[in-house]
Amino acid sequence: MKNEISLREPTPSERKEFDFYFQLDQDTLFMFIGRSADGGRGILFSPEAAKECGESWWSNIQKDLHDRICIDWEYCKKSNDKRLQEKYTLAVTVADIISSLLIGIPPFAVVSLIMKMGLDKFCDCRK
Fold first, then answer.
1. How far apart are CA 88 and CA 104, in angstroms?
2. Alpha-carbon dihedral of residues 109, 9, 13, 70, nearest 10 degrees?
């Protein structure tokens, strides 16, 4: 993966989609992810099972997400970039970086989860 990804202005539909996911709490995000993951198909009406499936998916992919965002893209070195202080630009940038890992999973659901955890914490940035 290229270390430099071009920052771009989010489209109105990207802003709207990100807002939808970002307003959800962590458990609901895990339910959305669980229902989208391969193992989550067929558990549409079981919120608990969908959440567990999402948490399991997260456990399996977290290292790959960390490597892509924190190591390959070097988030900690870029975190003070003024352009990334704008939440939509940050969200779209991270979504662009990780989308190839998320087949079938809504990228903004995962980005919202990571942003709610805090990217500095997720990447273990020492400022």
1. 22
2. -10
